[in-house]
Design a protein that fits this description.
By secondary structure, the protein is an all-alpha fold. The chain has six helices and no strands. It is 56% helix and 0% strand. Helix 1 (2-14) packs across helix 4.
């Protein structure tokens, strides 16, 4: 996951600001049709990211968003979650507290 995340940021930087596009990184379809993005970021020789064995490609979480939609997509997702939390706090009257650790590790907990 760490390599996928670092590679996603590299791909987002190469394709600034919108990333590689739909089904280019971190999804089952990008593995089935083997996207050229994996060669561009240097993942094509790593077990689990190869053309014949792409088992780890769809296990990226935020790496998928960053690789496919770049910094613009990451900003959109963050903006959405901030808006959602503000909306829930305003409409429910509850005090919502979410730690950074919980948000960053959501993939591993569920």
């Amino acid at each position: 996951r760490a390599r996928a995340l670092v590679s996603a940021f590299y791909l987002a930087k190469m394709s600034f600001p919108v990333g590689g596009g739909f089904a280019t990184f971190g999804t089952q379809m990008s593995g089935a049709y083997y996207s050229s993005a994996y060669q561009e970021v240097g993942l094509s020789s790593i077990w689990g990211f190869t053309k014949d064995n792409y088992d780890f490609i769809g296990d990226g979480g935020f790496a998928t968003i960053i690789g496919q939609f770049g910094y613009a997509g990451l900003l959109a997702v963050i903006t959405f979650f901030v808006w959602l939390l503000k909306y829930l706090k305003k409409t429910s009257g509850l005090h919502i507290v979410i730690s950074a650790r919980c948000v960053l590790n959501w993939n591993e907990k569920f």
